[in-house]
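Action item from last week, closing it out:
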Amino acid sequence: MLQTLVIENVVLISRLEIDFSAGLCVLTGETGAGKSILLDALGLALGERSSASLVRPNQEQAVVSAIFEVPQNHPVAQLLLENDYEFSGELILRRIVTNDGKSKAYLNDHLVSVSFLKKLAKELIEIHGQFDQILQPTTHRHLLDHFAGYDDLLSRVSTAYKAYKALRQQLEDAEKFIEEQKNQQEFLTAAVEEFENVDPQEHEENELIDKRNLLQNQEKIVAGARNSVRLIGGDKGILDLLGTTLNTLEKTAKLCSEALDETLNALNRAHSDVLEAEATLNTFQDRMTGSGESLDSVEDRLYELRALARKHGCLIPELPTLYEKFRGELALLKGGSESLETLKKDLAAAKASYVLCAEELHQQRLIKGKELAKAVEQELKPLKLEKATFRIEPQKVSESHWSASGMDHVEFEVQTNPGLPFGGIAKIASGGERSRFMLALKVVLAHTTQASILVFDEIDSGVGGAVASAIGERMARLGQQQQVLAITHSPQVASYANRHFFVEKYEDKQKMTQTTVSILKGDQSLEEIARMLSGDKVSQEARAAASQLLDFAQKIAA
């Protein structure tokens, strides 16, 4: 829910703090009072395009803050957690626009990108005008699917399509590769033969470099090892000295009970370790002197590997991978027909699986389309479109237009009067009719929307009387499930408000035009509705009519 909107230095607004309520909130006022400025300000906080023209004259910057109360299970909460933002239930979106056109966006006082602000806003709020996106055919399939609620089936269709699409791409790539690489078979054959002769191994370069370092220092290494062996096992070497020490200490230990046992054990361990070290050094000497591998052979191998890597424009560690690549490409060329046939069979199976799922989805869309159309027609009757027919008949598209959403084109069509042709809402219906079709759809689809706030900008334009009253009633019904904000010129719609805001402009002491917003209660709301009915001069008859509207709205709402 939008709790508070704080606006500073936006066009005609010096400073406003507007506290909204749950249910239906309406904003009324004379034309030009600044109602549209409020929507522009809200749009700024929601990440819409900024402009220096929005900054109040003689001010450095405009600031708009929108404070939302968001339940823990709302999609916005998950979106915040996924982006490492703390969430406690309150969300403050703030936008600052300077008089040179630059802007900054904040989320709970943390600087964020405007695009992230828009992403959050998309989950929070929907703003509708007379020509709403809900009337555009590109949205109709999505709306029908949300109404129907067959998410598992949609998921199966999407999975089947992705598998089909991946195999189709593999087949196209394989066919293209075989066609393009036919002339390269000779090159691949020679390259594979060359690689087979060289036979590069993983990690071989590092191992050869280590060997080369050993061989380059072989004499010093062997001499050092031999000298170490002599110092350990030679006459009066470490082993002799340890042996003598052990003999002496064993005799001494017998004279002092267990006092020297630990020391004696340590010397015995040392003697064993030195013996092991001597054996290791002897083995190392034998390996160094008897390996039979020369420095020249190592250098030759390194040269061979470097030459091969240089020829193919890669690094030595990449040679084994390149070898496998060449072998695979050559095998594909040699056994291309067989590979292609396998891919074609797999693709045919994947296509059949997709078509099966998509056909099931098509049948469900036909069924649910009729249900949605019937529900919309029920809402159209009170809106004085009782003769209108609403039709949803999903049509299959050509294979080139298949998608992860199925193989249907869905468009909401209407017939405004019997005998007239069916057509798209935007083409067939008048402005007032479009508004009513849109509202009927929104009422029926209310349970499917993620946004918890709906904003209607003069959706009642061009209608009055019973139609306007029916529009107000439906907005009030929507307000029972979601917060609804409505800018209206209709007294009938205003009569259904849970909270009534009056927007007006005046000149301050400095002769500057200001827009202000006040909450109307009781007689104040009645007086404004009477003004909307009769004009500037409010008559007793207008007040009586306004009272009747309010009484009627209260009865309907109850």
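Closing note: The domain at 2-129+431-443+450-557 is CATH 3.40.50.300 (Rossmann fold).
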